[in-house]
Design a protein that fits this description.
23 strands; alpha+beta; binds adenosine monophosphate; Glutamine Phosphoribosylpyrophosphate, subunit 1, domain 1
Length: 450
């Protein structure tokens, strides 16, 4: 779970990268970083924290040059600390290079131990650093050839950006797990995880970078390469369910439309006899709208979110009380008393959220609480860039739906079926990865477990 952004040949490169990352903040809130190129040298700044906390006008002034790449991080590989923040920068025999990577490599630990046995020294415990080492060791003449040489050795999920003093490379793995889009700000090429980053800076969306495609961006323009054998596509369906922003266009669809159709499908599969549908802000909103629309039920804002809760909130005194989800969400008491409601959320991971939310509704006298989930049960961990916990922590891997319903204390619980999910991307269902719901991973691999 990370967001990446890059811009080539623009006088305000680092300022636009800052804005691009700001729009991609939902993809990672642990750390943020920007690397810029002034044509002869790379300048970088990375810190733990949100984009707006990490960068000030003064910091951005120290990132000069006409090209820049940036990264927001939510760790899925490597621990949450500054040495693992990206973009990752190195100075090697052939110059400088920086990388911003979204996704997880499944053979990184094998390559890493092989390289270490040959004397390589790693600065971080991120899988992305493996790519940098492979590029640095490659004997090929040009940068793009060295990148291809490196990427041919790695397996797994990567949407990435590389920056040197003079060039930028964008690449998406042959399975296409993570999104990556190409745009233009006047004559300057821009690349981002999602199109919402283009909207903020006023860039035009050109197209998605294809699975297995590399773009070399330099003074002569944008050149496309497809050096890998074609593989079946396995785009991450969870980007549609939860992760991407609803205003983005990725994987050939607007995320909002897909998410709303999940709610419509869910209403067809699992209707409920209730007085109203109540959305849980914010991630469940589009699916809830779809559910209410299809069931012809009133939609009421029965749960209100405090939008000013940041990560910096410190509970005044543990002994006063433990706030938990209450600090963020509060039900509208008068609306709910004695009522039967349906709540729709996008997913259940450990079920702690749904359990707390149902309890809050019960506490204000809601008569019946029916829970609908706009994805199938998550039974298996993701190894391709979504931060899901190990199998034993995923409640649906060890409990039946009825048991989960009892655990969260709901009057009924229904998930969207896998067929229903596929129906929402009809005609393209073969292009997506459903491994977190099926345990059927796109290819065999051996993972190192910490
Ligand atoms: P849980 O309380 O563990 O069941 O988490 C479920 C909630 O977390 C849902 O409301 C989702 O919106 C959200 N969610 C789902 N997947 C993730 C993820 N990978 N990281 C953070 N939040 C998630």
């Amino acid at each position: 779970m990370c967001g990446i952004f890059g811009i080539y040949n623009h006088p305000e490169a680092s300022n636009h990268t800052y804005l691009g990352l700001y729009a991609l903040q939902h993809r990672g809130q642990e750390s943020a970083g920007i690397v810029s190129s002034d044509g002869g040298h790379l300048h970088h700044y990375r810190q733990m924290g949100l984009v707006a906390e990490v960068f000030s006008r003064e910091v951005l002034k120290k990132l000069p040059g006409k090209s820049a790449i940036g990264h927001v991080r939510y760790s899925t590989s490597g621990s949450s600390e500054l040495k693992n923040a990206q973009p990752f920068v190195v100075d090697y025999a052939k110059g400088m290079m920086a990388i911003s990577h979204n996704g997880n490599l499944t053979n990184a630990f094998l390559i890493k131990s092989e390289l270490e046995s040959k004397g390589s020294i790693f600065q971080s415990n991120m899988d992305s650093e493996v790519i940098v080492h492979l590029i640095a060791r490659a004997k090929e003449r040009t940068f793009i050839e060295r990148v291809v040489h490196a990427l041919k050795q790695v397996e797994g999920a990567y949407s990435l950006l590389l920056l040197t003093e003079k060039e930028m490379v964008a690449a998406r793995d042959p399975f296409g797990f993570r999104p990556l889009v190409l745009g233009a700000l006047k004559n300057s090429p821009v690349v981002a995880s999602e199109t919402c980053a283009f909207d903020l800076i006023g860039a035009k969306f050109i197209r998605e970078i294809e699975p297995g495609e590399l773009l070399l961006i330099n003074e002569e323009g944008v050149h496309s390469f497809k050096p890998f054998p074609t593989k079946p596509h396995h785009q991450c369906i969870f980007e549609f369910i939860y992760f991407a922003r609803p205003d983005s266009f990725i994987f050939n669809h607007n995320v909002y439309e897909v998410r709303k159709s999940l709610g419509i499908q869910l209403a067809r599969e699992s209707p409920a006899k209730v007085d109203m549908v109540v959305p849980i802000p914010d991630s469940g909103f589009p699916a809830t709208l779809g559910y209410a629309f299809e069931s012809n039920l009133p939609l009421e804002l029965g749960m209100i979110r405090n939008h000013y809760v940041g990560r910096t909130f410190i509970e005044p005194e543990q002994r006063i009380r433990h706030f938990g989800v209450k600090i963020k969400l509060n039900p509208v008491r008068e609306l709910l008393k004695g009522k039967r409601i349906v709540i729709v959320d996008d997913s259940i991971v450990r079920a702690t959220t749904s359990r707390k939310i149902v309890k809050m509704f019960r506490n204000v006298g809601t008569k019946e609480i029916h829970v609908r989930i706009s994805s199938p049960p998550i039974t298996d961990p993701c190894f391709f860039g979504i931060d899901t916990p190990s199998k034993k922590e995923l409640i649906a891997s060890t409990h039946t739906v009825k048991e989960i319903q009892r655990f969260i204390n709901a009057n009924s619980l229904n998930y969207l079926s896998l067929e229903g999910l596929k129906n929402c991307v009809k005609g393209e269902e073969e292009n997506f990865c459903y491994a977190c719901f099926t345990g059927e991973y796109p290819y065999p691999f051996q993972m190192k477990f910490d």
